[in-house]
Amino acid sequence: MSEADNPFAAFGPAEAVKVGKIQRITGTLLHRSWSTIPHVTHHDEADITDFETRRQAWNAAHPDAKVTPLAALVKASVSALKALPIFNSSLSEDGATLYRKAYHHIGIAVDTPNGLLVPVIRDCDVKDQATIAAEIAAVAGKARERGLGMAEMSGGCFSITSLGHIGGTGFTPIINAPEVAILGVTKLVERPVRGPDGAVVWRKMLPLSLSYDHRVVNGADAARFTRHIAEFMAGAAAGG
Ligand code: CAO
Predict the structure, then answer these.
(1) N or C, which terminus of the chain has less Cβ within 10 Å?
(2) Where is the 2-oxoacid dehydrogenase acyltransferase catalytic domain (predicted)?
């Protein structure tokens, strides 16, 4: 690219770099979703203090495997999709038909050097957390090293995007169309809350941000769906 093609070179040193294929495709899809779907984001938090204790104990007892908060969130999402099946649907482009799905494939956003990819973990209703965690690790590694084929990124019902290992207190994820909702997760925070006997106790709280298609889902159901995930996580066993 010549300097004449760089409109910023007139103001100071500025490099022109070609945008990679994956980032261009992802950018087009994100823009289409953001500009055609009326997004609303609902925020909540899950008390995962007891789950974290169980998870650490499970990981210590199983040195060859690792259960992550993300794998448990996949199971929590499946449970919420079953409780509120409107979230497990897709709307036709003309808005006239709603397709209701009876399978439970969950997409996981993976940050790669070439851009964002969303591999789909299939049949999460019949897999345990340990299997889901191992599949996420394998597919995230593959996405970063070799990329993924379209078949590995198709057919999702619902997606999760986790920034929990980096930070943040909440964000507004873009729906992975034709799905109708996506769960964003940010960094667990320890904070004091009032316990059942009135005493203040420190609890581990996981921020949840659910973006949903307001043509399909109403706000009350979004609040119920996010609460379902939070309550599932509060009581979740680790590994299973
Ligand atoms: N809060 C605090 N810590 C968390 C956490 C959370 N919400 N979620 C995970 N962690 C911790 C894990 O416990 C783990 O710590 P240990 O190794 O000490 O156990 C560490 O962070 C890494 O966890 P992980 O390997 O399980 O990774 P993950 O499940 O958090 O995420 C993956 C995996 C592939 C989703 C992630 O690497 C990734 O690519 N995320 C980016 C997604 C993205 O870019 N989204 C933006 C989309 S919008 O543009």
Answers:
(1) N
(2) 14-233
* Residues 165-181 pLDDT 10s: 999 999 999 999 999 99
184 Cβ below 6 A of ligand 1: no
Residues 24, 155: Cα–Cα separation, whole Å: 21
pLDDT digits 0-9 by tens, 133-190: 999 999 999 999 988 999 999 999 999 999 999 999 999 999 999 999 999 999 999 9
Burial class (CB in 10 A: 0-12, 13-18, 19+), 109: buried
Q: How close are the terminal C-alpha atoms of the chain, in Å?
A: 54
Is 173 touching ligand 1 by the criterion CB < 6 Å?
Answer: yes
Query: Does the active-site annotation cover 31?
Result: no
Ligand 1 centroid – CA 205 distance (Å)? 15
> Token pair for residue 37?
């779907």
**Distance from C-alpha of 88 to C-alpha of 163, rounded to nearest angstrom:** 23
